[in-house]
Design a protein that fits this description.
By secondary structure, the protein is of the alpha/beta class. The chain is built from 17 helices and 31 strands. The longest helix has 17 residues. It binds oxalic acid and manganese (II) ion. Manganese (II) ion binds next to loops.
Length: 596
């Protein structure tokens, strides 16, 4: 039975029902009984496998199709009227062509299946930040993941009332045919159509599709920001909490950073880290002229490999109940395993493809982009105010990526405009979170290249405009945990030790420490980053001393000069949409570099 009288919702459901022709339509009310029935049904068909309920209560296992394991950026489109509005950063299709193609693919795609209607909210219901969506899908896996990742059910329709302000999401697995796989966004119609995929990033439409691509477009029109950012709070020994938002490309450690445990040294002094979000932030200018942020999600869709009791005990704890695991190893006693979980790969297990797996074979058992979907409330370090409807005030923004050479461990931008420039020149080596080659350096401004729903140069302008409204803006920093030595080894220990850098950042925000002015921005004096009692658990062979610290704090002007031409070429793609301020910042950087 329909759960709303909102005519726009009813029309949308009716239109899609006529197109996809499901045998049944089921409205998801969010009740435990309904979700439990769906879990049983999915176990009966093999879509889910129930894990050992003693060891992993409420946990299930899923395998996706083997050619459907990551976001498909080359098949992801922004379908707006003018190509220039999508920008060179997006694939573009004219809306009428996209609708025609997609209708052909969706036609009768749900015959013999059930269409589930999922009302969902991005952001805590009742928050001024929150936005509603309705996702239609023929996948129980999607329903159950949406239940973890967003707030679903009848209460969302109460929030929506008669309003037309909801994203219309349509997803069908169709035949899971990779050649007809498309993720189409129609920002001008508030619609997302996703077909022939079952992979989370392509089908959990609240996440990348809505909370980033559609929301970034809405934010441009409505005066706010939707960002690929974690949010964390650092509590000092006096009990004051300062919040940091951080943008890093996919699979560069956002979840680990968001949940980090401070080194013993700091823990003893009384420092704590609280997680507000691990992937997405929606940010608004507050009445006090500060930038306020919420995490619009309700759970974590984390990368499993490499997650363990040392690298991220809080993430491991989050997965111990009510979690869905996708494409990891399934052990013979119905538990899960992945590379890097521990040093005891299981025998007699099945790999992510469902084949018997021999740990000695050299083949990995879990897919490198295998995932866990866990409720945020499971996380031991979740901030008590993580669902505060007004959000949290942001003191610092950090940008980061995988840079073998050029970027120092941390530097601070000169001001907001220069910070926007720093975000715009971000680049990182690609990872397994998207299909395509890994380890290739690409420009990924603000870690938003795959997620900005409109012309990225207009997005930079929007950031500059937001800055003008902030009377008390966050300071902007760039960090690089991934610098390599000449033999290709990481120099910085990373993980929990990154706290040492965050602490310097917060001291900068409070005006408690000075810095060295360099051509690229302000860097710490080596005496101001505490390197006492470093724990080398992740990189046992590593030894870090003050020389190494000086080396990674240094700004190698030779490397920096090498990035100027690629940045110019990257900027040139945006033609006259490029804000003059950024062109000026590039010129200013160039002249500063020639002075050193
Ligand atoms: C993610 C991604 O899943 O960025 O968060 O790919
Ligand atoms: Mn992400």
């Amino acid at each position: 039975m329909a759960l709303t009288t909102n005519k726009m919702v009813l029309d949308f459901v009716e239109e899609m029902k006529t197109l996809a022709n499901p045998d049944h339509v089921v409205w998801i009310d969010g009740s435990k009984e309904q979700l439990d029935t769906l879990k049983e049904e999915a176990c009966a068909t093999g879509e889910l496998i129930k894990l050992d309920q003693e060891k992993l209560p409420g946990c299930y296992y899923h395998r996706s199709a083997i050619d459907d394991v990551a976001r498909v950026e080359d098949r992801t489109y922004i379908c707006c009227n003018q190509e220039v509005d999508a920008g060179p950063n997006n694939n573009w299709m004219a809306p009428e062509d996209a609708y025609a193609m997609a209708k052909d693919i969706f036609k009768n795609s749900m015959v013999g299946r059930t269409m589930y209607v999922i009302p969902f909210s991005m952001g805590p219901i009742g928050s001024p930040f929150a936005k509603a969506g309705v996702e239609l899908t023929d996948s129980i896996y999607v329903v159950l993941n949406m239940d973890i990742m967003t707030r679903i059910g009848a209460r969302v329709f109460e929030m929506l009332g008669d309003s037309n302000d909801f994203v219309r999401g349509m997803h069908s697995k169709c035949e899971l045919d990779a050649r007809r796989r498309y993720i189409l966004h129609f920002p001008e119609d508030n619609a997302i159509w996703s077909m022939n995929s079952g992979y989370g990033g392509n089908v959990l439409l609240g996440k990348k599709c809505f909370a980033l691509r559609m929301a970034s477009y809405q934010g441009k029109n409505e005066g706010w920001l939707a960002e690929h950012m974690l949010i964390l709070g650092i509590e000092n020994p006096q009990g004051e909490v300062s919040y940091i938002a951080g943008a890093f490309p996919s699979a560069c450690g956002k979840t680990n950073l968001a949940m980090l445990i401070p080194p013993e040294l700091y823990k003893k002094k009384g420092y704590k880290v609280w997680t507000v979000g691990d992937d997405i932030a929606w940010l608004r200018v507050g009445e006090d002229g500060r930038l306020w942020a919420i995490n619009p999600e309700n759970g974590f869709f984390g990368v499993a490999p490499g997650t363990n009791m040392k690298s991220n005990p809080n993430a491991v704890a989050s997965t111990m109940k009510d979690t869905i695991f996708t494409n990891v190893v399934l052990t013979k006693d119905n538990t899960v395993w992945w590379e890097g979980l521990d040093n005891n790969p299981p025998h007699g297990a099945l790999d992510w493809k469902g084949n018997p797996w021999d740990p000695a074979s050299g083949e990995s058992g879990a897919h490198p982009n295998s995932r866990f979907t866990s409720p945020a409330k499971n996380c031991p370090c979740i901030a008590s105010n993580w669902e505060d409807p007004k959000g949290v005030p942001i003191s610092a923004i950090i940008f980061g990526g995988r840079r073998a050479k050029v970027a120092p461990l941390v530097y601070q931008s000169r001001d907001w405009q220069h910070g926007v420039f720093v975000g715009s020149i971000m680049a990182s080596e690609t990872t397994a979170a998207a299909t395509g080659a890994t380890g290739v350096l690409r420009h990924d401004p603000f870690a938003m290249l795959p997620f900005c729903g409109y012309n990225m140069a207009d997005y930079w302008q929007h950031w500059l405009d937001i800055g003008k409204r902030l009377t008390n803006p966050p300071l902007i920093f760039n960090v690089n945990w991934f610098r390599l030595d000449d033999s290709g080894n990481f120099i910085w220990p990373g993980y929990g030790e990154n706290f040492r850098v965050l602490e310097w950042i917060i001291r900068r925000c409070k005006g408690e420490v000075d810095a060295r002015e360099t051509a690229v921005g302000y860097t710490p004096r080596s005496r101001d980053i505490d390197i006492d009692e470093i724990d080398y658990y992740i990189h046992p062979g590593l030894r870090f001393n003050v020389e190494a610290l000086r080396a990674i704090l240094s700004v190698g002007s030779v490397y920096w000069k090498e990035i100027l031409a690629p940045v110019k070429a990257f900027y040139a793609q945006f033609g006259d949409h490029l804000p003059q301020e950024l062109a000026d910042e590039l010129t200013a950087l160039e002249s500063r570099l020639w002075l050193v």
